[in-house]
């Protein structure tokens, strides 16, 4: 999800891992990063320069030809390569002004980019606050453990509690303290470029049967997340560009009687990175309202990234809230 080759994107995104180091210390300690020239626009990035993102805290854009992986900062886990779009879910979950989460769930965690990001943002004043990270796949759960250990070795197993399990089989009543969830399920990956998946897709469009299967799985896993008893915010995301996996899943969830009865609504634009300009597709909300303005308002609550054009992968994010 996070690797580009230099001819495919003008920028590579790196997140300072504040679990291990503050931003100030980072630039004092790591001369390579401190030595880069600051530029004000992504477009003016070139080798030897650094751009500070205006949407996600502690995130920087760097020229893809820079050899970040050979820096001490990378080896020590002080910096994590993570696409900007992929940083939005944890940032959205954390932007609830009324509530600072202490206990959160990451439903689909491996390799762990969003897990380690949200772990750095939860309220750690409470001694036992943590991220419950679920992963179903045997191999990927190992990668998740490895990444969690690199990102927070001092609190390994405490701040991030990894469970190798199918999230839909987890009993929500065992997690009464959880107030926030991130659900980033398997998807078609149609927003990802620079990997074989994109070439396959241009040759052979993702077929509608596959999209149907994926979206019904995405719906199911989201519905499970929305049944957590104390949950106040659930962020849904995919790296797909298809409306079927994105706005339509959201629309179907909003139409679900159980979900309505639990008090869930779609967060409005002002609660979901309002300054990000590219929002959802309103047509997908036809099943919810005949009123065009209402459909537009729902779409405004969703976030989209167009691959390359928005300086990274194609992505979608939306947030369910209740008081
Ligand atoms: N959130 C991850 C990150 O930012 O690094 C990427 C997640 S990836 C898109 C989806 C992951 O969900 C895969 O590792 C997949 O094995 C896992 N997964 C799929 N279905 C699951 C389920 N029912 N329960 C737990 N994990 C699941």
Automatic annotation (TrEMBL):
An annotated GO cellular component: nucleolus
Binding residues for S-adenosyl-L-methionine: 108-114, 135, 166, 184
This protein's record includes keyword RNA-binding: yes
Organism: Pichia sorbitophila (strain ATCC MYA-4447 / BCRC 22081 / CBS 7064 / NBRC 10061 / NRRL Y-12695)
Protein name: Piso0_004683 protein
Gene Ontology MF, one: RNA binding
Family membership: Belongs to the class I-like SAM-binding methyltransferase superfamily. RsmB/NOP family.
Residue ranges annotated for the SAM-dependent MTase RsmB/NOP-type domain, each copy included: 2-323
Key words of the record: Methyltransferase, RNA-binding, S-adenosyl-L-methionine, Transferase
Keyword Methyltransferase attached: yes
Gene Ontology biological process terms from the UniProt entry: rRNA base methylation
Positions of the catalytic residues: 239 (nucleophile)
